[in-house]
Specification:
mainly alpha
Length: 320
């Protein structure tokens, strides 16, 4: 990919924020993707051998988590909620959270920190993230992404703390409890803050209306007829923030863009697009929680009849 970029010299035309310029980030993305693929294959094989619900599994779970007789495993036991988790939560955040609790004894060292306290904390972090994600500087937006990822980690950590304080080992959602509603409200609040920050940033920095093609034309015009300072700013810019830093270049771009109507997306278009994003996130979260509830009642509960037992075996072997 980098060879093609050098061959066609796209860096002369594109702001570097639209190019994958960091080899470190690319390497981490490849490693993380490979890790998720391998773990998903292992999860698939583990689910095939999961079998129906057994209360003995949840008794053994306590010895696994405490590390007394068994090592911790991400694939055993496998309740429905863990199977249906996203890869980042199942294979990264949850193992780190459980290591902090059961290996370092977090709840023993800080018994006054409850699961609801952690939920309120990541609500505050969600609010703080808005200020960073709507910033004009790419660096501060990256800091905001890091803060929001830490908020996502706390969202996994509060469940671990709840199970530790309640002496529960089953990895299930306790529907109808106060903690369930607090956790749900904090998740909704986090999603609202994320969508709001995206909307505020796009309203401050309205994107081009047609995939940057008109901005590319403006950049080509400046490279052909602009001054040496303008050409240098375009060819050597290291980020999108540097591209329009020089005042003469900024004014020249504005003058050239003034005769081109519709070069930027309208506020209504931005708000509608962000609203659809928020709706998509809300709908996916609602149906994920609903399906987890249904499958949890069906597969992670003792069979009440022979038909129920046969259904559990069939679904466990074929659905996931």
């Amino acid at each position: 990919m980098m060879l093609k970029i050098k061959k066609f010299n796209l860096k002369r035309r594109l702001p570097t924020c639209y190019l994958l310029s960091s080899k470190v980030i690319l390497s981490l993305a490849i490693i993380l993707s490979a890790y998720f693929i391998v773990m998903d294959i292992k999860l698939f094989n583990a689910v095939k051998n999961r079998g129906p619900f057994s209360s003995l599994k949840f008794k053994k779970n306590s010895s696994i988590l405490s590390g007394k007789t068994h090592k911790y495993s991400m694939f055993w036991p496998l309740p429905v909620k863990k199977i249906m988790m996203a890869e980042a939560t199942h294979f990264v955040r949850s193992p780190i959270a459980e290591f902090i609790e059961y290996a370092l004894g977090f709840s023993y060292l800080f018994p006054f920190i409850s699961a609801n306290f952690i939920s309120i904390t990541h609500c505050i972090l969600s609010l703080v993230t808005i200020k960073f994600l709507m910033h004009n500087s790419l660096f501060w937006r990256q800091i905001g992404v890091g803060i929001f990822q830490f908020r996502n980690f706390l969202d996994s950590f509060d469940g671990v703390i709840f199970r530790a304080h309640a002496n529960k080992t089953s990895y299930t959602s306790h529907y109808g409890s106060l903690g369930y509603y607090v956790d749900a409200a904090s998740d909704v609040f986090g999603g609202v803050c994320l969508v709001a920050s995206i909307a505020l940033y796009l309203l401050k920095n309205r994107p081009p209306s047609k995939n940057l093609t008109r901005c590319f034309r403006l950049a080509d015009d400046l490279l052909e007829s602009g001054t040496n300072v303008e050409k240098s700013a375009l060819t050597r810019s290291s980020s999108s923030d540097d591209l329009f830093k020089h005042s003469s270049l900024n004014s020249n771009l504005r003058n050239k863009a003034s005769g081109k109507e519709g070069i930027h997306a309208t506020k209504i278009t931005i708000l509608i697009s962000v609203a659809f994003l928020g709706i998509r996130i809300a709908v996916s979260a609602f149906f994920w929680d609903r399906n987890v509830h249904i499958y949890q009642d069906l597969l992670d509960s003792p069979a009440v009849s022979e038909i129920h037992q046969v259904s559990k075996i069939f679904i466990s072997s074929n659905s996931f």
